[in-house]
Design a protein that fits this description.
The structure is a single chain. By secondary structure, the protein is of the alpha+beta class. The model is unreliable at 64-93 (pLDDT under 50). It has 2 domains: 4-64, no CATH class; 99-231, no CATH class. It has 3 helices and 14 strands. The chain is rod-shaped. It has helices at residues 4-22, 39-61, 162-167; strands at residues 24-28, 31-36, 68-70, 76-79, 86-87, 99-107, 112-113, 129-135, 138-143, 148-154, 174-176, 189-194, 200-210, 223-231. The longest helix is centred in the first third of the chain and has 23 residues, at 39-61. The strands form 4 sheets. A 5-stranded antiparallel β-sheet has the order 6-14-13-12-10, with no helix packed on it. The protein has a 4-stranded antiparallel β-sheet with strand order 7-8-9-11, with no helix packed on it. It has a 3-stranded antiparallel β-sheet with strand order 3-4-5, with no helix packed on it. It starts with a helix and ends with a strand.
């Protein structure tokens, strides 16, 4: 909208143009010009009138400020007058992963664990972990049905963040659990798991090599005490 100054400049310029054209003796907006202007005065009035009207037009078409407009794509801020634009990233934290299963179980030799449901020793086509015992000195924790591991090492579950679960590389399908120097899963070891359903789980070996009801006599203290938390896909 034109400012008061622009309107005043336009009106005054129009009056000067009328003086230049008519030479005087006219009335406008209740005011009356009674005298007669000389040729020189009319020329000056014409120049000033055109200049003031031109100034008023420029003032009315030039915005006082440019209002930034936030576009829908990526939080970019654009300038409506065609100026430069800047992109701002969304700094809001991502939502936390939602837990779907958690617990603590004793995993005996040759038993399985489904991290999506918490079922132990269930349907072999649905398990994520298999505690395989070949003999006294050869044991493996295996990923089943398309699940995969990422070995973290000695840690606590609380120290594993959502970002760790989402960005880790799940490329291991078997970890050595033999009761010797080759053991990769001693007590306190944390393993990240991408389950058969594509969910993310963090698993901790709370105790390695414990006695449990049902242990085979030839393999005493061969069970694992496991704690886990499984999260839904984001």
């Amino acid at each position: 909208m034109p400012s008061n100054l622009a309107i005043a400049a336009f009106v005054f310029g129009a009056i000067l143009l009328l003086i230049a054209i008519l030479g005087g003796r006219f009335g406008i907006f209740g005011a009356e010009v009674r005298g007669t202007a000389s040729r020189a005065s009319r020329a000056v009035s014409a120049v000033l009138g055109v200049a003031l009207i031109g100034l008023a037009v420029r003032m009315s078409t030039s915005p006082d400020s440019v209002t930034p407009d936030r576009s829908d794509s990526g939080g970019a801020v654009s300038n409506r007058a065609g100026g430069s634009s800047a992109a701002t990233s969304d700094t809001s934290p991502p939502g936390r992963l939602r837990s779907v299963s958690s617990g603590q179980e004793v995993l005996r030799g040759s038993y399985t664990l489904d991290l999506d449901t918490g079922a132990v020793g269930g349907d072999s086509s649905q398990h994520d972990l298999f505690w395989r015992l070949d003999d006294d000195n050869t044991r493996y924790l295996e990923a089943g049905n398309g699940a995969a591991f990422c070995l973290i090492g000695a840690s606590d579950l609380d120290r594993v963040a959502d970002g760790d679960l989402l960005t880790s590389h799940y490329e291991i399908n078997r970890l050595n659990g033999s009761p010797n120097a080759a053991n990769q899963i001693p007590s306190g070891t944390v393993v990240l798991v991408k389950t058969q359903l594509g969910r993310y789980a963090k698993v901790r070996i709370e105790q390695y090599g414990i006695a449990a009801p049902g242990d085979l006599p030839e393999w005493p203290k061969s069970s694992l005490l496991i704690r886990w938390v499984t999260y839904a896909k984001p």
